[in-house]
Design goal:
- It is built from 26 helices and 26 strands.
- The protein is of the alpha+beta class.
- The strands form 5 sheets. Strands 4, 5, 6, 7, 8, 9, 10 and 11 form an 8-stranded mixed sheet that branches. Strands 24-19-16-25-15-26 form a 6-stranded mixed sheet.
- Helix 2 packs across helix 9 and helix 12 packs antiparallel against helix 23.
Length: about 850
């Protein structure tokens, strides 16, 4: 009880000094809880949607996929209408409906603007059925009744200002067709952002499936008293003689759909939790510094406690109880803030086009419990070392103005361990950089990153002495005595300076590493494009290129040739008998001009001859393949071909790494016309001197198909740069949390340092130092600490990035580019971070009463 009272008294006596540490705990816990609440809410939204749309029993083609993806020919898997009639005969069936649905469509308005979601959610076209009434209701107009009528969901209508009577053009694999909006349907549950259009059944079958009398799935409703499981069994028995189908209960169907979404959600969740973990790691340094300085400031108090009979354990527990209180307060506030972050993310996603309703806000009991446990445990672990040092304070310390006991031997051991770990990390990074396989090297790289990071954290105090002196010579000596005082203050406690700098080092190391990797990827891809791509124009989109768009492109003027490029599902059997299911690429012979691939044997142009193909050098080496050998290629949906290897391409490239090529003509011999896939991408070459005219003409020809982009090489490079830049900006935004916590650490360290040096500051003011000089001294000290952390972080991060690039070089990304502009900007920005962090501590120091400061013990 005495320990608790003492801890409570000390906690509230230093509540101002604890505040920033509590904020660090709050931010870290808030990010964890916010991530969990956000992802749980998204899962709830999809669960409600899947539960509302699932029939009692669903019958699908055996090969149908939960994500709605289509086979290689671009048409959805479907069932014959005869299966509907057969299913209706099953015992326990109340009714059966045939549904048609396709996600391989694009819907545009009269202004040729894409009505699809900009967030990646699908555009879904299908027929309107009674089953849709489970999740939607018609709130305006009526359901479509003929080939010229359509109905759209209310969210899409609101977003794109659609109304009854407007025309929509639907672009599918089988062609284009236009219909007038006669109805608007509103979701009864939250729509995560999909755009949905409905047609009558006959139109949907003809335009989406290319055939009448077929359905993509059947929705079966159970008769009264029949369970879903019994109905599934009855339907399976009835259909056993007509073929093999995927038959699912409502729960099984919802679970399968949920599993597909869950994989995507897990990527988001674990990525965000990873950044929260980084913030926790940075927060540990802040908490260690806070308690170390509080213990140092209370040395005489702790010594007196020991003198009047307190044991080491009681002193230790007293500090740990304070840490527990800090963790509890910060975590409770963090849980509340986490719910706020989740709501903010939902609003942000809704503004971007993915509608998430706060009605579905999901806060599981595990979320606050996990947040509290993480916050408290991390805080206690961070405070353990300061608490242990507090327990070592002897009663004699009460009789002198002494700090916590120093342990020279421990310092040497710490330095030795740090050097060993740093050396091991450097060796691992070197091994990763010289690895022969990217998969093997990535594991070694991970070990090198962890070991070098821990090593730098441990030897931070040793590095502080040298690095701070160098920075001071460059920046501080010009400010005379004030600059020298700032340098000495930063060097006074190297362990504290090292810990404060390490917090900033972690975030900036990751920034530097990712900047190097991103810049190297862009530079490598740009170099590869310049060297390898001979085509003037590249056409592609989020969907495969429909035949009508292909035809429009081929008819564009001022082009020498247009090249088709198709990815085919196929199983290859090499001469050694090994099977490979990675498929093969079919292209026109002009592709050999559009992509200049070096060969290690043979000529690539020969691979586009009859019954010929090429393989990559890695495949050839692995299976002992040589030019002239025959490979068996079993085309999915077609027959098996015996193709002669006419060329072996060099795999030391980034574009089409490992691709195997054959000609369109060869593919057509072994694959039926209805199984031939649309083009993944198309290339075009302009007539000499007609590049500008051809570019304009091609853009105009593809204008009716806004789902595809026409790019020349300059456009392609810029888009690549923009895509990587957007990804990096998102990562930097998440890393900003760790950097904010690091800044709080600098603020807290300076604030406590000012309190620790109250008497010293009073004496300096008494002998003539002005308030302005005092504030400048503290700001300079802060800048030096920030630049120390930045220098270590940027140096370490560039080392990680350069090593990662060497692994990417094994996949063809050979150019190492250091983004010096970004590195210099971050380094200079760190100085401003230091200035900002020192504002409040410097202001408070300048306001100190001189006489009161001198009288302080």
């Amino acid at each position: 009880m005495t320990v608790l009272k003492t801890s409570m008294r000390n906690f509230f006596a230093h509540k101002g000094r604890m505040a920033l540490s509590a904020i660090a705990v709050l931010l870290s816990v808030a990010f964890v809880c916010g991530t969990l609440v956000f992802t749980d809410t998204m899962n709830t939204t999809f669960d409600k949607l899947f539960a509302a749309t699932a029939s009692d029993v669903t019958v699908l083609p055996k090969t149908a996929k939960a994500d709605g993806s289509t086979p290689q020919n671009g048409l959805p898997e479907s069932l014959p209408a005869s299966v509907l009639a057969q299913t209706a005969k099953a015992q326990g069936v109340k009714s059966v409906e045939g549904a048609v649905s396709s996600m391989n469509v694009t819907v545009v308005n009269s202004a040729n603007k894409n009505m699809g979601s900009s967030t990646g959610a699908p555009t879904i076209a299908g027929n309107w059925t009674k089953n849709d009434l489970r999740s939607m209701e018609i709130t305006s107009g009526h359901a479509p009744r003929g080939p010229t009528e359509t109905m759209v969901d209310a969210d899409t209508a609101d977003k794109h200002h659609l109304k009854l009577g407007d025309s929509l053009r639907t672009i599918s694999q089988t062609g284009d067709f236009t219909a007038r909006i006669v109805g608007i349907a509103t979701f009864k549950v939250t729509n995560p952002g999909a755009a949905v259009v409905y047609f009558d059944t006959a139109t949907a079958q003809r335009e989406l499936l290319g055939a009448t009398g077929r359905f993509t799935q059947l929705g079966v409703t159970a008769a009264s008293g029949v369970t879903d499981a019994q109905l599934k069994q009855n339907v399976a028995q009835t259909l056993a003689s007509t073929g093999t189908y995927k038959i699912q209960t409502a729960k099984e169907n919802a679970d399968e759909n949920r599993q597909g979404v869950g994989q995507f959600m897990n990527v988001i969740k674990y990525a965000m939790l990873g950044f929260a973990g980084i913030a926790f790691l940075v927060g540990i340094f802040l908490i260690i510094n806070t308690f170390s300085m509080l213990v140092a400031q209370r040395t005489r108090e702790i010594g007196l406690m020991r003198a009047v009979g307190s044991s080491r354990g009681q002193v230790n527990r007293s500090v740990l109880v304070e840490a527990t209180l800090l963790g509890i307060v910060g975590s409770i506030l963090g849980v509340g803030a986490g719910v706020g972050i989740a709501v903010g993310l939902m609003k942000l996603m809704s503004a971007a086009g993915m509608d998430l309703s706060t009605r579905d806000l999901t806060v599981k009991w595990t979320t606050p419990v996990l947040g509290l446990l993480l916050g408290v445990i991390v805080t206690i672990l961070a405070a353990y070392l300061p608490a242990r040092r507090a327990g070592k304070v002897s009663p004699m310390a009460a009789l002198r103005d002494a700090g916590t006991p120093a342990d020279g031997k421990a310092g040497w051991v710490r330095g030795l361990i740090g050097l060993v770990l740093t050396g091991a990390g450097a060796a691992a990074l070197f091994a990763a950089a010289t690895a022969k396989k990217a998969t093997d090297g990535s594991l070694v790289l991970g070990a090198g990153v962890v070991l070098s990071l821990i090593g730098f954290v441990i030897i931070g105090p040793l590095l502080a002495n040298g690095v701070v002196r160098v920075i001071s010579v460059v920046l501080l000596r010009a400010f005379g005595p004030v600059g020298r005082l700032a340098e000495r203050n930063a060097l006074r406690n190297p362990r504290r300076t090292g810990a404060t700098g390490a917090a900033l080092m972690i975030g900036l190391a990751l920034v530097a590493c990712l900047s190097v990797v991103g810049s190297s990827m862009v530079a490598s891809a740009t170099s590869e494009l310049d060297k390898s791509v001979g085509a003037d124009f590249i056409v592609q989109g989020n969907q495969r290129i429909v035949p009508q768009a292909e035809k429009a492109m081929e008819q564009a003027p001022d082009l020498v040739h247009v090249t088709r490029y198709k990815d085919l599902d196929a199983t290859l059997t090499s001469p050694d008998g090994q099977k490979d299911t990675d498929g093969i690429t079919a292209a026109d012979p002009s592709y050999a001009q559009d992509l200049r691939r070096a060969t290690t044997a043979g000529e690539l142009s020969a691979a586009y001859g009859t019954n010929a193909m090429s393989v990559g050098s890695k495949y050839a080496k692995k299976h002992g393949v040589h030019v002239g050998d025959t490979i068996s290629v079993a085309f999915k949906g077609g027959s098996t071909a015996k193709l002669k290897v006419a060329a072996i391409t060099d795999d030391d490239v980034a574009i089409d790494h490992g691709a195997r090529y054959t000609s369109i003509a060869t593919m057509q011999k072994y694959l039926p016309a209805d199984k031939v896939p649309p083009n993944e991408i198309m290339f075009a070459k302009a007539k000499d001197g007609q590049e500008k005219q051809a570019y304009a003409a091609l853009k105009k020809a593809m204008e009716p198909y806004p789902q595809y982009q026409v790019r020349d090489q300059t456009d392609y490079k810029q888009e690549l740069k923009d895509q990587i830049g957007q990804l990096l900006n998102m990562v930097y935004g998440l890393l900003a949390l760790a950097i904010i916590v690091a800044v709080l650490g600098v603020v807290n360290t300076l604030a406590l340092s000012v309190v620790e040096r109250t008497r010293e500051i009073g004496l300096m003011r008494a002998i003539g130092m002005s308030r302005r000089q005092l504030r400048r001294m503290i700001r300079m000290e802060s800048v030096v600490i920030a630049l120390f952390g930045a220098l270590l972080g940027l140096g370490l991060g560039m080392g990680w990035g350069a090593t990662a690039q060497q692994l990417l070089a094994l996949e063809g990304l050979k150019v190492l580019e250091i983004p010096w502009g970004t590195i210099i900007a971050v380094f200079v920005g760190s100085a401003f971070v230091g200035l900002f962090a020192a504002l409040i501590p410097a202001f408070r120091a300048g306001r100190m009463n001189v006489l009161n400061a001198i009288a302080t013990e």
